[in-house]
């Protein structure tokens, strides 16, 4: 997680070996965040190569996107929910970077996603980001960027107004809550570019829809969407 001088890291590892975030087994050399068994079992959507997939369908009639994909399914009761929870609430931004880089390696094999110009996180309100210490979606972008070899831009799309936590609101309330909260600084930077807009979890799609339409109201560009998890 933190950059430490290699020999020091080695001895630290002897005293505090990393364990799998899912099954608590000790990780062996080359494993990160979760063990190989748990990684093989991740309920991947595999929808990044499928046009018209169920993630894209969420945005039909709501936002004119190029394509959309999520890395894994986020079902109620799934043991993999803990990864998102730790990424958001327990300071474990390394989970976002690592899973983002795994997802990016898959997206890099798709023509549509390999063609993006900028990777842009859905911004958090500055106050929220300050209390959390980071934007989890930006960490996912950093991982995607490692694999896709495309730059992250977290300065152009920003959040301008405070919204309360989304979890207990229905779709209409969420939509009202997020419309008009995004601001686009220097929209000309995005002109005619292909943007990959990134969020941690896709549920109703209200936030991503609002963000897409805020961008498209300011500048002509193409937008695709990537989320780590898909709450189907
Ligand atoms: Zn495991």
List strands and helices in order, with pairings:
Blueprint: H1 6-15, H2 36-40, H3 54-59, E1 68-73, H4 81-89, H5 93-107, H6 111-114, E2 118-121, H7 126-132, H8 136-148, E3 157-159, H9 171-178, E4 182-184, E5 194-202, H10 206-216, E6 222-230
Parallel strand pairs: 1-6, 2-5, 5-6
Antiparallel strand pairs: 3-4
Helix pairs in contact: 4-5, 5-8, 9-10
The protein binds zinc ion (ZN).
Summary?
With 232 residues, the protein is of the alpha/beta class.
Instruction: Give, in order, the helices and strands.
Output: HHHEHHHEHHEHEEHE
Helix content: 25-40%
Largest sheet: 4 strands, parallel
> What low-confidence regions span 5 or more consecutive residues with pLDDT below 50?
none
Which percent band covers the strand fraction? 5-15%
CATH class of the largest domain: Alpha Beta
Structural class: alpha/beta
Mean pLDDT over the full residue set: 90
Task: Please give a handful of descriptors for the protein shown.
232 residues; alpha/beta; 2 domains; four-stranded parallel sheet; two-stranded antiparallel ribbon; globular; binds zinc ion
């Amino acid at each position: 997680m933190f950059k430490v001088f290699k020999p020091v890291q080695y001895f630290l590892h002897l005293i505090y070996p990393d364990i799998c975030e899912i099954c608590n087994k000790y990780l062996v050399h080359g494993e990160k965040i979760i063990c190989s068994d748990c990684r093989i079992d991740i309920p991947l959507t595999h929808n990044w190569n499928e046009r018209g997939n169920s993630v894209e369908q969420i945005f039909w009639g709501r936002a004119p996107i190029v394509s959309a994909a999520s890395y894994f399914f986020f079902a109620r009761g799934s043991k993999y929910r803990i990864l998102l929870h730790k990424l958001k609430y327990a300071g474990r931004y390394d989970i976002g970077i690592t899973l983002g880089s795994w997802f990016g390696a898959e997206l890099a094999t798709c023509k549509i996603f390999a063609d993006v110009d900028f990777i842009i996180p859905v911004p958090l309100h500055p106050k929220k980001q300050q209390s959390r210490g980071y934007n989890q979606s930006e960490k996912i972008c950093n991982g995607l960027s490692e694999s896709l070899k495309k730059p992250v831009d977290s300065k152009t799309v920003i959040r301008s107004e405070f919204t309360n936590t989304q979890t207990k609101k229905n779709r209409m309330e969420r939509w009202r809550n997020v419309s008009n909260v995004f601001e686009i600084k220097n929209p000309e930077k995005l002109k005619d570019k292909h943007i990959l807009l990134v969020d941690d979890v896709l549920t109703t799609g209200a936030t991503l829809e609002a963000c897409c339409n805020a961008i498209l109201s300011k500048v002509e560009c193409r937008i695709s969407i990537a989320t780590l998890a898909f709450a189907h």
